[in-house]
Amino acid sequence: MYGNKLPDAKSLRAALQDKGKRVEQGSTSYVQSVVENMQREYDKAVAAGNSSAEIRALGDTLQAFDNYSDKIEFRKVQQKFQTGSTLKPTFDVTNYTIGKIQL
């Protein structure tokens, strides 16, 4: 299925729903689920003989998660539209800190 491309957001969302539980964006469980899906798709691509630059980059990303032992911090930025395609001049930033991701 992912022989020549990386998984998209729709497949990641589906993977989260497959487990029968809902996880909140920004939680360790959410990121763990996304990374587990990345690992499954990487394994499928490699088994199918895909050694494209994108798949190698995905493997490097997974290795970085595996090697990183500190807490992970990231930010979500949201900016709403005023009307049509004009953005509001303000935005919201949410900070997240999660624990170690297990592969």
Radius of gyration, in angstroms, nearest whole number: 16 Å
Largest beta-sheet characterization:
2 strands, antiparallel
Q: How much helical structure, as a percent, in the residues?
A: 40-55%
Major β-sheet strand ordering: 1-4
Order of helices and strands: HHHEEEE
Q: Can you give the mean pLDDT? A: 81
The assigned structural class equals alpha+beta
Low-confidence stretches: none
Strand content: 15-25%
Distance between the termini: 22 Å
Helix count, DSSP H or I runs of 4 or more residues: 3
Number of strands: 4
* Approximate shape: extended
Tag the structure with descriptive keywords.
103 residues; alpha+beta; two-stranded antiparallel sheet; 4 strands; 44% helix; 18% strand
Would you give an account of this structure?
The chain has 103 residues and is of the alpha+beta class. It has three helices and four strands, in the order αααββββ. The two termini are 22 Å apart.
Topology:
Elements: H1 9-18, H2 28-47, H3 53-67, E1 72-78, E2 81-83, E3 86-87, E4 92-98
What is shown here, in short?
Helices cover 44% and strands 18% of the residues. By secondary structure, the protein is an alpha+beta fold.
